[in-house]
Structure formats: C-alpha cells, structure tokens
Protein 1
Amino acid sequence: MRLAFREAMMGFQRAPLLSALSIITIGFSLFAFGLFGLVALNIRNAVQQVEERVEIRAFLTDGTPVEAAAAAVGDVSGFPEVLKAEFVSKEQALVLAKRELKEFREEFDASVLPASIDVRLKDGYRDPRTVAAVAARLRAYPFVDEVRYGDDWVEKVYRLRNIATVAGIALGLAFAAVSVIIIGATIRMTVLSRAREIAIMRMVGATDSFVRSPFLIEGFTKGILGGLMALFLTWAAHQIISSQLIETQFFDPKLSMLGVAAGALIGALGSALSVGRHLRDV
Amino acid sequence: MSEAKAPGIIRFSGVTKEYPRTGTALAGVSLEIAKGEFVFLTGPSGSGKSTLLKMIYLEERPSHGDVKVSGVLASSARGGDVATLRRKLGIVFQDFRLLEDRTAEQNVSFALEVIGTPRTAIGPKVARALAQVGLASKAASLPRELSGGEQQRVAIARALVNDPFVLIADEPTGNLDERATRGIFQLLREINGAGTAVVMATHDLELIRRSGLRTIELNRGQMVFDSAAEARPAEDNA
Ligand SMILES: Nc1ncnc2c1ncn2[C@@H]1O[C@H](COP(=O)(O)OP(=O)(O)O)[C@@H](O)[C@H]1O
Ligand SMILES: [Mg+2]
C-alpha cells in the first residue's frame, strides 16, 4: 500500500499539468453543482419563509355591514385549509399601513384603505393551487371587491428553483464528464511513461489490482483536492453574495463533506474507467 | 508419459497458436519438461520460440490444445492464477528489461516489493540473489554503469529472488559477446545444478552442440526435433 501510494504521488510529478487540469475540472464540476445547489437551497428557504406568511386578503366594498363581514369570517374560519380568518376594519388597516410604511405616514387617511378579511392558511395548504382555490371562494361573496394573494409569483419562484437545479446538474455533469476524460488522458500518459515498470510488475507476478491501485489512489486524491477546491470556491461565492447582495445560507458540514466525497468518487471513477483499457496496451 | 522420470512441470498438448494478422505461430506442439530439467529451444527467427515461452508464463494462450504449468491450465487460468504462477517462475529476456533509474539492488527488490513480500524479508533475499549471480559488489550500481553481461546477471538475480521452479530465458545471450555469453551460460548451468529447471531459447548452435543438453527445435511453428524424443522414440506418439 505504501508503495502504491508512493507511485501515485510520482504520477503527479510525471504529469503536473494534466494533474492540475484534472483537479481543476473536478473542482469546477463540483463548483457548478455547489453554486446552483446554493441557489436552490436559498430559494427553498425563501419560499418556505414566504409560504409561512402567505395571506389572502379579501377587500370589502365600502359600506359592508359589520355583521355580514363577521358572518363571513365565521364561515371562512371553517374552511379545512384555513388556519385563521380575521376582520380588519378601515381604521385598523390604516394603523397597520402606517406602521409598515413609515415614510408615507402622511399620505394615508382613513378613506383610502378598504376594510378586509385576512386569511392565513394551514401549513401544507400554502401551495399556489390551494391558495388560488381559497381565493376563488372568497371572491364569491357579493361584498368582496377584490382578492389579493401571492399571485403567481410564488409559482415563479418555484420555477426559478427548478431551472437553477436543472442548470446546475447539467453544467456539473458536463464538467464531470470533462474531468473523467482528462483523468483518462493523464492515466494514459502515466501508463505509457511507466510501461516498462508495469510490464516488469506483471512479469514477476504482481496482481492486477496491485498494478491498478496507484492509479486509483491518484484519481481519488485528485478528486478530493478538486472537491476541496470546489468547496472553497462555493464558500467564497457565498461570502461575496452575502456581503454584497443578500444574506444567504451555506451548506451544512455534512453536505459539504458529501461534496468532497463526490469529488473523490469522480476521481476514482475516472481512473477506474480508463486504467483497465490503457493497461491492456502495455 | 509412462516413463519413470520426474513428473512433468510443463506440458504442452497439441498446442496451436494463431495470431490475428500473422497466422500460425505454433502448430500442434506437444512436449513435456520435467522438474529440474535444462532444455534448449532453438530454430530460426520467427519459428515460434518466443511464442512457446510466452505460453509457459501465460502471456499468450493457445488457440487450440492446452498448456499445463505447475498444475495451472492455460485454458482455465484466471488473472489471479496467472499472477500466482508467475511468482514461481523466473523470466529473463535478451534486452534485460531493467529499470534504468534504479540500482541493481533496487531492481531486484522491486520484484519482491510488488508482490507484497514483507519488508524485513526483502533485504536478505536480494543480497543472496545478487551473490548467487556474482554481483554482490555491484549492488549499488545503476544499469548504465554495468556491462551487458552484468546487466543480464541483475535480470537473472531478479528472476531468481523468489526461488522459482523454472527459469525461462528468451535469447538471454543474444546481446552479449562471446565471453559474456559463456559466463551467463555457466551461471544458468549452476542455477540448474541447484535444482531449478531452465528453458532457454537461443540461436547459438555452438553453445548447444558443446553442452549436450536436451534440445527442442522449431521451424515455422512446428516442433521438428526433440533430442529427448530422439533418445526415446517411443514417446513420440505419446
Ligand atoms: N504478438 C504477435 N502478434 C502477431 N504475430 C506475432 C506476435 N508475436 C509473434 N508473432 C508472429 O509469430 C511468429 C513467431 O514469432 P516468435 O514466437 O517471436 O518467433 P521467434 O521467437 O522464434 O523468433 C512470427 O511469424 C511472428 O511474426
Ligand atoms: Mg523470439
């Protein structure tokens, strides 16, 4: 094993440029995964936060009797999807608006804002379709003027997340394929430069797995180095985005380790795929 | 085969080898080599000597017929069997096949390192093998610092270091001058004297004639002469 490890290290020395290239492509492959993974993770977090706040607001026509509104609140509270329904009078709406939009405090007066019924949905019923269904039922009340909710922007965020995921996987796979090809080329070079040594190993009865192991170790090591590089790049990107744009969340340590392990897997797989083929030519 | 001689450690039964492009390299070769025997293999260039030797160390497999070496059948041997068998064989070539960036000693120890011999066992074995070939004093020399004959001795030491039951030598003196040739042949005789079988391919008819050892001659892949069969014609049809 020690001998195999020494041989693996010598492989780096024999082809430093190709070795560096292998590490870099593995790094970029996982960086692509990482970056889009980060986007997907943060969109998911954002969507979750938004979902928790999803409110449907049914604005009431002016002059709606309070009793009618109260009866409607009772009704709506009974919907299976609904967590809480609440009547908000014109006055309350004004107070809320003033609190939320301090800059425009002077612009509001009681006549601007309509009264409304604010509805919060139960967890698990906050997807775009259910929201739309509940909104439609609210709209059926004659005194409901207009219903507002997350509209379809929640759906847009979902779609964005899917696009990010697909793009990340596609780009990551492309880089992974390139790194497998480069690892193959590196191994081909190493096998050729060590042809005599390998032939002697076989002549004296070294097992196939022994002859292979330095190449697998070499690929594995490159994969780990590429994985660490990707982890660093992703982390750096995360830092920049967090400080310049918006606060984002990074992968937890377990997921980070999984990324590095994926690098090791790409490296070892790339080696395993080509080493047998090239060794046959010796 | 019913003879009262030592049991065969190498047996070819009707072995034919066809290469994809060049055609038949061996045609219906049957032979048996006994434990501790010395056998010359001769014949013109391209007659199939190297191919026959490759069959012994399972570098090539027969197209027809079968080869049995130390209980291993070529027709059913797997990768692991080949590796195990080769640990019990010594192989040397005309071109020595040494690693240029390693000393004589390192070249010999390499053969043990790559088959997982324990570190502590390697030193003494290597020293013994180098002494056996008369190169104890050149252990630290690189191949380029050695003469052709000495380089071949390093290769022989490497072949011997794991105590093989047979030494396979493919024209081991082909690159050597007269004096070095005699030295290497003498060494092979000594190795054979210690109980190791030797199968040596050579063009050197003079060497063969003087030695009086068993000789097998090939021509265009056919076995055209076997001095052992000549002495015991009955075995010819065995
Ligand atoms: N690997 C190979 N592929 C194709 N033909 C081969 C190969 N090795 C040997 N031959 C052919 O087989 C024949 C015997 O070759 P070889 O055994 O090397 O003869 P020798 O060692 O007696 O000179 C030759 O015609 C040679 O061209
Ligand atoms: Mg030959």
Protein 2
Amino acid sequence: MSTFIDGLSLGSIYALIALGYTMVYGIAKMLNFAHGDIIMVGSYAILTTLLMNGHPVLAIIAAVVICTALGVLIEKLAYKPLRGASPLAVLITAIGVSYFLQSVAQLIFGAQTHPISLVHFPPVVIGGVTISVSAIISLVVGALIMTLLTLFIKFTKLGRAMIAVSEDRAAAKLMGINVNMIIMVTFAIGSALAAFASTFYVMQIPNTSPTLGSMPGIKAFTAAVIGGIGSIPGAMLGGVLMGVVEKISLSIPVLAPYTTALEFSLLIIILLVKPTGLLGKKRREKV
Amino acid sequence: MALLEVRDLEVYYGVIQALKGISFDVNEGEIVTLIGANGAGKTTTMHSIMGLIPVKHGSVTYEGQLINKVPSHKIVKLGMTQVPEGRHIFQELTVYDNLLLGGYIENDMKKIKADIEDVYSRFPRLKERHSQIAGTLSGGEQQMLAMGRAMMSHPKLLMLDEPSMGLAPILVDQIFEIIKEFNKSGTTILLVEQNAGKALEIADHAYVLENGKIVLSGTGAELAASDEVKKAYLGG
Ligand SMILES: Nc1ncnc2c1ncn2[C@@H]1O[C@H](COP(=O)(O)OP(=O)(O)OP(=O)(O)O)[C@@H](O)[C@H]1O
Ligand SMILES: [Mg+2]
C-alpha cells in the first residue's frame, strides 16, 4: 500500500515533467532535451534561497519564478531563431542547451552533491501502514496542478489557442493567433511545472548536483512517449505508470536491480503494441 | 486606390521560383477570381499575401499600407483572412470551439456569441451540429464551418482557396450562393477556383495564372467569352 502511494507520488513528479515535454512537442513541434535540466536549476534555486536563510515557501516561489523565466529565455534565445529550421538542428541545439545549463551549474556550485533540507515531515502511520507525508503532498498538489492545467486548456481562450496551434499552425495564424506568443506561454507553463516537480523531487531525495535533471528528465520523456507524445492526459497517465512501476519494482528484491531496464522495456512493449503511445492519436494527414 | 494591390510579386520555394512577378488589384466590394491549372501558383499567391510564406520581391499593399513583412496574425486584425485550400478546420475540436477560435481577435464575449448565432443562421447545419467534433463532419459541412469560422473575424477582404473542391454539384451551387451573399453584405472577395466557369460567372474581375505569371486578365464576362480561356479552362 505505501509502495503504491510512493509510486503515485513519484508518478506525479514524472507526470509534471512529462507535461512539459509533451506540451512543447505538441505546440512547438520540437523535443526540448534541456527540459530535464530545468528541474536541476529549480533545485539550485531552492538550495540558494535556503542557504540565504529564506523560508521554504520563498524557496519554492524562487524555483518557479527562475525556472519559468529561464524556460522563456531559452526559447527566445536558442529555439526561436531556429523556427522553420530542420528538426535535427533544433534537437542538437536543445542538447547543447542541456550541456550548457549543466556546465553553468557546475561552474557556480561545483560538481559535488549538495544536501537540501527543504522540509521534513515525520511519516505518519495510518491503520498500521507507514505513509510518507511528502509523498502525499506531492501526490495531492501534483494532481491539483494537473487538474488546473486541464481546465485552463479546455476552458480558456489561451488554452484553446494552444490546441489550435498544436493542431494546425497555419490555420491558427489565420485566426489571428500570435503563434510565437503561444509557444512562449507553452515554455513558461512547462518550466513552471518542472519547478514544482523539482520541489517535490528534493522533498523526497534531499540533495542536488548538476546532473540531477538527467534521470528524471529521461524517465519523464519516456513517460510522455508511453502516454503518446503531444497528448496531455497521455503525459499524466504515462508519468503515473512509470512512477508506480518504478516503486513496485524497487520493492521486489529480485526485480530491484533491474528497475531502470524494466521501465525502459515498458516503453518498448507499449510502442510495439500501440506505436502512437497509450493515448496518442495518429495525425491525420493534411488534405 | 484599390483595397489590395499586388505588385511584381516574386516568391520562391528554396531555389524554385513559384511566382515570377505578378501584379493585380482587388477593389473594395468586388469579387475577384484567380484561375489557373494545378501548380500555377494560386495558393502560393494567397499564402504570400497573408504572410504565411515570405515574399522575395515586390509588394503587397492593403488599404494603402505595405504588408509584406507584417506577420499573419496582424494581417487578420487589419481585416483580411483566408479560407485555406483543404479547409484546415481544427479537426479535434467541436464546431462551436472552431467558431470561437474564428472570433479570436474579438475580446467581447457577447459579440462573439452574437456572431456565432449569425453564422448559425447562415448555416443551420452547423447549429444542429454545434457540439460535434469537427473532424467527423461531412466535406460540405467542413467547408461551411471553414467559411463560417473565417466570417467570425469580420474580414473586409476574404480570400477563398478552392471552396468547392471535392463537393457534390448541388453543394457547389450552395457554396457559390453563400459567396455571393457574403459579397452583398459588404465583404470583398478574392476567389481561387478549379471550377473556372462558375467563378467567372460571379467575378467582377478575373486573372489567369500560368506557371507563376498572369497571362490574361479582364472582367469575368470577358474571360468567360475568351477563346483561350474556353479552351484551357472551360472544357472547350
Ligand atoms: N511547400 C512547397 N515546397 C516546394 N514547392 C512548393 C511548395 N508549395 C507549392 N510548391 C510549388 O509551387 C508551385 C505553385 O504551387 P501552388 O500550390 O501555389 O499551386 P496552385 O495553383 O494552388 O495549384 P492547385 O490548383 O493544385 O492547388 C507548384 O509548382 C508547387 O509544386
Ligand atoms: Mg492551390
């Protein structure tokens, strides 16, 4: 039971990150390989605020603000000039941005691991089951954020414009939609979600290093593909699935050492059965 | 001064020149048509006017303002939009959401709702299907949706790229009736059609495009009577 809750909680972290990948892919039609590193930047924002004796809430706000601004800045400086360039050029740029962020972090903070004590909740025991409070918090807040995002996309003008741009960029322009602005908003939202993921991540694994973002980044990306890249509910489902599989596998001694391999095999199996991912749609060819 | 003036327009796809210097006018209140064979450059002309593809040489002037370098979404705000070839409705959204997006440049929700009612009264079929996913509409209904959606931004100049493509004859007649109605209610029309006969019938002015060049122009009636046009586009 507690393994399952831990899995859901880790899953909601993966889902928050996966949403960033999937939204940027759907709307800007690119793989933002540097997305995982935004999580790393968020963790250093938290670390720095705490080292300056800032309140934990302030640390979280700092992470959200810095990550959002950074996401927008990266888009403007690195990706926007490549609009219309070949996907390969954009992908290589994104990988470059990823290394750049890691190197800057290493330059400022060093390569070593820094402990972060954001908050510490003693675990609670309910009906004989020990449950981690930070797991519950990530789970509940993560679910809340995802609900708000879904409502935002479904029921606001900006959300509708995001769907329009993801479906048909030229037609969206003909509606008077400023596509560059929508792409910028998408990066802002994706990066803010990554900041929350970062917060929950350091609540559970209380330390950071310049490569912190790589593993959750790549797992969340896998989750986004499992769910169907471009699909928002898909990213949520894929993320939760990854988290649950990971925690359950880790709790079974014979499987534990093979957990990561198992997670990536999940990708292969699902793509074999459904090449577009669980909730992915086959793109209709344009007439 | 014409509402839209196109001068010496040249457009390239990579090294291939698709438009080789074309010039024409669209006067306010008129229906102007561009006809020409497949690949002549009709869609390219419309896309370059709308800013969807870059203009290499020449100028596009709308209401006296040079708009070559103006981004598409701002051109829509200036009062010009396009019903693209192949309709390009938002397939995964409902009919209603498509129309809401058509009214994107309007901020007053009351006005948007009134405009949607207006579209519904022109196209009762769309009203019946307001919550249907647009991708599941029939071809004719999709065309109506694309036209209704474009009307939502109250264009002064509406460009239609092959609106009758793939439709049954009775629907084609209906679409042409609607175009005439739009025009009567004050919308200037630039129309691209495969169905040259019908297009020339309703057009005030017409231009024939061949290999990226305008080779003939005149009133709709003049071109319909011309031997060259009859031979090449009206099936003898
Ligand atoms: N994206 C593109 N890349 C390269 N060449 C293109 C592209 N789009 C159009 N062309 C070429 O430009 C020329 C003009 O094409 P355009 O689509 O404007 O023709 P059209 O008159 O609209 O034809 P149709 O009646 O078939 O719609 C054609 O030779 C076409 O092959
Ligand atoms: Mg065409």
